[in-house]
Amino acid sequence: MNRKSRDKKNSHLGQLLAPSILVVRLSSLGDVLLTTPVLRALRQKWPGARISFLTKEEFAPLLHNNPHLDEVITTSGGGTFEQSRDLVRKLRYRKWDLLVDLHRSLRSFLFRRLVPAARTVVYSKYRLKRTLLIYTRLDLYPASVPLVPERYVKPLEPFGVKLDEGPCELFLDESDREPALKKISARWPSSPPLLAVAPGSAWPIKRWPVESFAESARELALRFGFKVILLGSKKDAEICARLAQILGQKLCLDLAGKLPIRGSAAAVAEARLLLTNDTGLMHIATAVGTPVVAVFGPTTRHFGYFPYRAESRVVETRLYCRPCTHNGRVRCPLGHFRCMKDIKAERVVEAAVELLNF
């Protein structure tokens, strides 16, 4: 398609009053939440549009009650060929004016190839820049590195879609809050101020040492009278149990693996602050309006996953070997793990105090 024809199609779509739009982001927790500013921008551009979102079943709860969506379509994480074929058949029978691929994976490629749409757009992952930075230290990223929602919206800008100044969004209701509040009030009926801590991560190399989390949590509890709630998935249960043992039952309540995604979000919303690694819970905190102090080790701002438009502080250390991965590793490739070990609890406490006294 030449530029003149493409501009003509873009102009036509931009003038539609009620286009049918399919947004594709299959995973993961943080990535799905980071689409929500774009969903809001699509709704602002086309108030009468029918906007559908395709994602894996486990991440669909992140989009419940979202007023910018008309429909959430789910696919199973390890879906069989027959299940994928049936889903494609259902989507093919629908008329789509715009398909927005915010995943750019092999599976999302198949969806956009097999599901016809008048226009299809795909966001850029900066794969070449990312690879050069990690393996050669050649930094070709722009001086002002765009965060993920700003990258998501880029291919939509020709249609007049623009981000506002708002953060990510997660719309909770009383049924989400009740389980978390019940557990917290059972431990502390006097409703003390809460500090949420998320010491886990899918990748070991992205975990700040448990002892450092414990030191930071104790100091903040002493200064502000906090009680500490530990959060994470079932996969984080072991590391949270270690931290709970250090802090003790009087100070800490371990909720890791004991709440669904939306229940964990409700618990974060009750806290004055979240201390966390580079995790999905960090993005949940930005979506529910809880200030965040995030510890970043092997990953950097280049990859776009710093807290988005939120009260936040990122604590990191400058090292020649950072970044060593865009996602995560099991162990430090150089064996020293300095990107995390060199970050002292005092720095994290200082960042937290700045936010709490703001």
Give a description of the structure:
- With 358 residues, this protein is α/β, with parallel strands linked by helices.
- It has two domains: 3-159, 3-Layer(aba) Sandwich (Rossmann fold), CATH 3.40.50; 177-356, Glycogen Phosphorylase B (Rossmann fold).
- Helices cover 39% and strands 15% of the residues.
- A six-stranded parallel β-sheet has the order 8-7-6-9-10-11, sandwiched between helices. Strands 3-2-1-4-5 form a five-stranded parallel β-sheet, sandwiched between helices.
- The longest helix is centred in the middle third of the chain and has 15 residues, at 210-224.
- The radius of gyration is 21 Å and the shape is globular.
In the CATH scheme, the class of the largest domain would be Alpha Beta
Strand order of the largest sheet: 8-7-6-9-10-11
Which bin fits the share of residues in helices? 25-40%
Second rung of CATH, namely the architecture of the largest domain: 3-Layer(aba) Sandwich
Radius of gyration from the alpha-carbon trace, in angstroms:
21 Å
Class inferred from helices and paired strands? alpha/beta
Q: Kindly state the number of beta strands.
A: 11
